[in-house]
Write a structure and sequence with these properties.
The chain is an alpha+beta fold. It is built from 2 helices and 5 strands; from the N terminus they run αβββαββ.
Length: 111
């Protein structure tokens, strides 16, 4: 039993070290789709450190269905979301609106 506990602790440590990117808290958001125009799903919201709202692409017809479920769960429970940025040059303050879905590494429920 101790082996498994140590293994899970080690895996948790490794995953936190490997994910050394920037994590941005989304202070307020609305979930938006394009209706019948496409299968894209966006969050329209404010990233911590950014003055204007931006559009964050969280799903399309191929990837991101779990992101939609997380966003809905956070919205229904009154929680906030955070995103881990995939590109080293991106920061919370300069992350562009309507960036490609691949520029977000993880979507997490926080707060």
């Amino acid at each position: 039993m101790r082996k498994y506990v140590l293994l899970f602790l080690l895996l948790g440590l490794i995953s936190s070290v490997c994910n050394a990117g920037v994590r941005c808290k989304i202070l307020s958001f609305t979930i938006v789709t394009n209706g019948n125009q496409s299968n894209d799903v966006y969050l329209n919201g404010w990233l911590e450190g950014k003055e204007e709202s931006i559009w964050i692409n969280i799903a399309n017809d191929q990837v991101g269905k779990h992101n939609v479920a997380l966003a809905l769960a956070a919205q229904m429970s009154g929680k906030t979301l955070s995103i881990d940025l995939a590109n080293e040059e991106d920061t919370c303050a300069n992350f562009p609106s309507r960036a490609a879905i691949g520029r977000i590494e993880n979507l997490l429920i926080s707060g």
